[in-house]
Amino acid sequence: MAKLEARWALRLMSNAMARVSRHFHVLWKQFLLRIIDLEALSIEADVEQYIGQFAGVLLMISLMQALGNLVFPPPLSEAWKFEQSHILTMMLIVGLIAVLTWDGQFPDRRDALILGPLPIRPRTILFAKLAATAAPIGLAILLLNGASSPIIALVFARTSNWPRFFFSYWFTMIACSLFLLCTLLAIQGVGAALLPRRLYIRLSGLLQLGAYATVLSAYFLLPTLPTHASMVAVDNLQLVGLTPSYWFFAMLNQLNGSLPADMQWLAWRGWLALGASLAGALASLLICYSYTMRKIVEQPELIPSRKAYNWRIPLGSSLTGTLLAFCWRTLTRSRQHRIILAFYLSIAFAVWLAALHRALIAPGLRNFSIELPITSTVMMVFVVMGFRNIFALPISLTANWILRTTQLRPSARYITAVRRTLLLLSVLPVLLVTAAMGLTYRPLTLVAGHLVLLTLLGIFMVDASLAGFAKVPFTCSLLPGSANFQFTFWATFGGLTLLLAFLLPVEVEALHHPLHFLWLAAGMAASCITLWTINRWLAAKAELYFEELPEEMIMTLGL
After folding, report:
1. Pairing state between β 366-367 and 441-442
2. Which of 160, 405, 409, 539 is most buried, judged by most C-beta within 10 A?
3. Peptide bond into 443 cis (omega under 30)
């Protein structure tokens, strides 16, 4: 029976695809691959493997949620808390995917010049772009809720109401995802239609960064309101009325039949917001594809700068200063690198913002506690990871021949300059922010001791992340799948959890005992020196490379 159903489903899909225009099918594949910049990839890149690793992470998260709710079922009194948390998580994932595919739904100069003269209808291009954008978002919704939704329905709904809760849960997840995606589309479409092309391009990057910060800040800073009294409290009415996640939470309970009468207005606000976002996105897309194609071709995207000076970071003429200036200008000019870096920096910013909020509401100076080490450690981990990851992403492979032909110094000098650049861009700012936060704690001697240990942690992370990194930042092609994303993600998650749960309490305890602090600092310093020595030895015989290639494997028949 299962085989017959599978064959019937495959036949139905094949018949549906056969009725789809061939133009649409080809364009959909090309637009889907544009999620990753193909010009930055290695010639041996396996894009499907790279996307599959991201899908595996989302599926594993869903399985972990399902297993946790099944083994340790939360009480029914925690239902509202869990529903709000899942809606926020869904909006976070969809928002990040939508921001990463920013401008992917609208035509660009390449589409206008290549597809414009061809006998392809604009609506075919529009539908292909929408389908390419909806594919990763739909896959994320399916993977993130596929395994966990039946268990959540069993835990938080009575047996007789399980189908209704299950349907309400899925409808709400899709609705909140559509609302967020269509809202971003409407904002982009209005800007592209009303503003000149060059001004829109300048503002588009700022809007993209603002959307990143808004989505992440909402996830980390919005409180959960687990009771009816907290939802209708006078102090929370303004927050609840202006926050979309609470609208769709009310929509979920309205569809489920468990929403109190005095909260019905909140659910209807969600319905109105969903309809308005759908209408705004549809109108903006139609306007852009009908009236802005000519604007894209005729109006220039770049204009000469009006600045009469050429500012540079004052670090002399050393290789480190040159490389730091190159990295800084890459980050200020490349929107792709800024967005990827903004993902990591927004997490660090949200953690710092939460700590700042607690410091402002405190009546005065606070005693030193584990709060400062946790905040600063999370900031250090994500900032160093962010800069290190974007170092491997190229900006223009067609221009790296300049660095290939002008390498007049040994490779070890370049590797040393890369290490110093990463220290200056990632470790130093976190130390300055931590020192400023530490002024609100007493005694200051414990804050100074933590700064010493945090510096050693930052140096260790930099040396560990640059092990085997024999290339200049932003100049080497990317080989997706060379480092297993699933292993890296879960190793980072597990390492950060271990660091926060077990090692930071040891640090706080050692800060109150000078002898223990000296032993801990000496052990961390010895680890940093050992890793630095190994990297220096590897750099002495390394050669800079600009093309990522997979390792060659010799296969034998075993005869």
Report:
1. parallel
2. 539
3. yes
Q: Is the dihedral of CA 83, 85, 87, 90 positive or negative?
A: negative
Would you state the torsion angle of the CA atoms of residues 348, 351, 353, 354, taken in this order, to the nearest 10 degrees? 180
CB burial readout 456-493, b (16+ within 10 A) else e:
bbbbbbbbebbeebbbbbbbbbbbbbbeebeeebeeee
pLDDT in tens, 337-367: 777 787 788 778 878 877 887 777 777 788 8
> Nearest 10 degrees: CA dihedral of 367, 370, 373, 375?
-100
CA distance 270 to 367: 44
The model's pTM = 0.71
Q: Rounded CA gap, 256 and 274, in Å?
A: 18
The single-letter DSSP state of residue 44 is: T
The whole-chain average pLDDT of the chain stands at 77
178: which residues sit within 8 A by CB, 6+ positions away? 274, 277, 278
Q: pLDDT for 250-295, tens place per residue? A: 999 899 888 888 899 999 999 999 999 999 988 887 777 776 666 6
Reported residue count of the chain is: 559
Domain ranges for the chain, please list them: 52-298, 319-540
Does residue 155 carry a pLDDT above 70? yes
Angstrom distance (rounded) from CA 409 to CA 472:
13
CA pseudo-torsion sign 448, 449, 453, 456? positive
Helices 122-146, 79-100: crossing angle, 10 deg rounding: 140
Residue type, 121: R
